[in-house]
Amino acid sequence: MYLWSVKVRFNILAERHGQRSTVITSNLAFGEWVQVFGDEKLTTALLDRLGYRSHILTTKGPSYRTKRPTKEGSGKTAAE
Predict the structure, then answer these.
(1) How many domains is the chain partitioned into structurally?
(2) Is residue 75 part of a domain?
């Protein structure tokens, strides 16, 4: 990911901070976000803004997505 796109995303989220609701989903732990954004300082600042006055929901267990049938009536799931 280019640094300019990281900064653009950071700026968008920074502008929304305290103004609008934002929902973000990820299968990464917070410590792994640096790998996505590539800049430790920007990632730390972003997580700081996102974490302030937020609700963090963590789910565990098997994926519901893999349990749904791949084709209607086939009887098989996406995991099979």
Answers:
(1) 1
(2) no
> Which amino acid, one-letter code, is at 76?
K
Please spell the DSSP secondary structure of 31-59, one letter per residue: GGHHHHH--HHHHHHHHHHHHTT------
Look up residue 67 and give its DSSP letter.
Answer: G
Question: Mapping DSSP to helix (H, G, I), strand (E, B) and coil, where does residue 21 land?
Answer: coil
CA dihedral 71, 75, 79, 80 (to 10 degrees): -110
Which single residue is written with the structure tokens 């800049």?
A: 39
The pTM (predicted TM-score) of the whole model is 0.60
Q: Considering the domain boundaries, does residue 44 fall inside one?
A: yes
| Rounded distance between C-alpha atoms, residue 65 and residue 63, angstroms | 5
Q: What is the pLDDT of residues 27-78, one digit of tens each?
A: 888 889 888 877 888 889 888 888 888 888 888 888 777 776 666 555 555 5
